[in-house]
Specification:
The chain has helices at 5-17, 20-27, 31-45, 61-80, 83-87, 104-114, 216-224, 234-239, 271-283; strands at residues 50-51, 58-59, 91-95, 120-124, 139-143, 151-159, 161-166, 186-190, 209-213, 230-233, 245-249, 256-263. By secondary structure, it is of the alpha/beta class. The chain has 3 domains: 5-81, Winged helix-like DNA-binding domain superfamily/Winged helix DNA-binding domain (Arc Repressor Mutant, subunit A); 89-154 and 262-283, D-Maltodextrin-Binding Protein, domain 2; 161-254, Periplasmic binding protein-like II (D-Maltodextrin-Binding Protein, domain 2).
């Protein structure tokens, strides 16, 4: 026999009422039904929980020990399915790098002011969807096209692209660059969470050498060490400064979309408020 919530509710009612009759009335059951439920629970546990030898029922030592566990289990279940608590659970916002760029701090501060009942947790996860497709976050700030199934996206802004160069590279002496200026360089590609691929360059003019890394930290380290150059968004230059890396605008590279993504099925209840606030911040409202 498997134990169900009705067994716990029945036992707790008996413990609180000290009477099968009053417990039955409280649960809107017959007294025989309450007796059978208690007997089934005791049989499953292999212990007598209630002393029936007196006029007023009393819990046995085993019953008193089980009472606390039963009450905690029932409370945990009811909390888990409470719609009000569900609405107020933290909203986990993932990002692979650079978060919301210059809008990150305004978003976090405004959310805290307007929605203090729902904490907004910003999580960096090195993954193309920043953990969204795997269910690790409720929404994600992403860059570039997102084609993972089951996700809804809304473009919020675009960012200019920049070249990331070793600080001592001759190209760092230039005020701006083109994709052609990088064609002879080794291109450092973050193939796990990055958006840059060789398809950014025109066919026939693509760099011949690449170096692959798995996250932004390794990407910066490789460039600073002089192992290659990279391409990223302008917010990377602002949020990830590095003494060994120089950032320069890429004048002919297409801008990079910044999108907010969330799961189509069972989105967090506060997703709509997050989307609306992100739009407001970008528009300057």
């Amino acid at each position: 026999m498997s134990i169900e919530l009705r067994h716990l509710r029945c036992f707790l009612a008996i413990a609180e009422e000290s009477s099968l009759t009053r417990a039955a009335a409280r649960l809107h059951l017959t007294q025989p039904a309450v007796s059978r439920t208690l007997a089934a629970l005791e049989q499953h546990l292999g212990a007598r929980l209630v002393d029936r030898s007196t006029h007023h029922l009393a819990l046995t030592a085993e019953g008193r020990a089980f009472h606390d566990r039963a009450a905690a289990a029932l409370a945990a279940f009811e909390a888990a399915v409470d719609p009000a608590r569900l609405r107020h659970r933290p909203l986990r916002l993932g990002h692979a790098w650079s978060a919301f760029g210059p809008y990150t701090t305004p978003l976090l501060r405004r959310w805290q002011r307007q929605h203090p009942e729902t904490p907004l947790e910003l999580l960096r996860i090195d993954d193309r969807t920043a953990g969204l497709a795997r269910g690790e976050v409720d929404a994600a700030l992403l860059r570039g096209p997102v084609d993972a199934p089951g996700l809804v996206t809304e473009e919020l802004a675009t960012e200019e692209r920049v070249a990331a160069l070793p600080a001592d590279s001759p190209l760092a002496d230039r005020t701006d660059l083109t994709l052609g200026d990088l064609a002879a360089e080794t291109i450092v590609l973050n193939t796990v969470s990055g958006t840059t691929t060789l398809a950014l360059w025109p066919a026939g003019a693509r760099p011949a050498a690449t170096l692959t890394v798995a996250n932004t930290d390794d990407w910066l380290t490789a460039i600073a060490a002089g192992r290659g150059t990279g391409v990223s968004s302008a917010s990377t230059a602002a949020l990830h400064p590095h003494p060994g890396v120089a950032y320069r605008p890429l004048t002919d590279a297409p801008p990079l979309p910044v999108v907010l993504a969330w799961r189509d099925a069972f989105p967090h209840p506060a997703t709509g408020a997050l989307v609306a606030m992100a739009r407001e911040i970008v528009s300057g409202d």
